[in-house]
Each structure stands twice: as structure tokens, then as C-alpha cells.
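Run log, item B.
One chain of 105 residues. Sequence copied directly from the ordering sheet:
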Amino acid sequence: MVTRISYPVEVKMKAIEMRLAKVPVKEVMEELNIRNYTQLKTWMRWYRNGEIHRLHQPVGKQYTFGKGPEYESETAKLQAENRYLKQQIEVLKKYEELERKWRQK
């Protein structure tokens, strides 16, 4: 049975900083005692995508499975909701455009 390891946020951030400073993956893993290199890749992906809040999530609890991030303020929550709704409107506009083109044929 594989045991899950929970790394503190400080270790995750230190690993990200070291990778941004072009420190080799092997060296980062050895210095911070990280077992799997794919874990570093995941943390870097979250960092690049601006998902810093995911570094705080506990092992096995991923926000993508129905539990969203805690927002810092009501304004941040409303801004995220606003972005989502704008994306939905854009999808509908594209769908309408495709439907119009299809009916013209």
C-alpha cells in the first residue's frame, strides 16, 4: 500500500522558486526530500495557471471534484463568477453563429 505524503506549503513554494531559478529537478528533489518528480510538475502547472490556492489543499482533496477554492473576499468571488458567466455568453454566441451558417447551406 502506498502512503500519501503531505508537503507543507513552504516546501511547495521553495520547490517552485528553485525550479524558476533553473535548479535541476533532481537537485530540488534531493534537497527538499520530494519522492516523485511528477509532483513538482503539478505544482509548477498550478503556479503557471495562477492556481496558488491549490497548494494549500490537503492530500486527496482536489478542488476539481466539487469543492471550490475559498475566496479571499466577496469581491473576488463575484469576479470569478463574472468571468465564468462571460465565458458562457461567448460559447452561446459561437453556437448561434455556427447555427446561422448551418441554416444558410
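Observations after the first pass:
- DSSP finds four helices and no strands in the chain.
- Residues 7-59 form one domain.
Flagged for discussion on Thursday.
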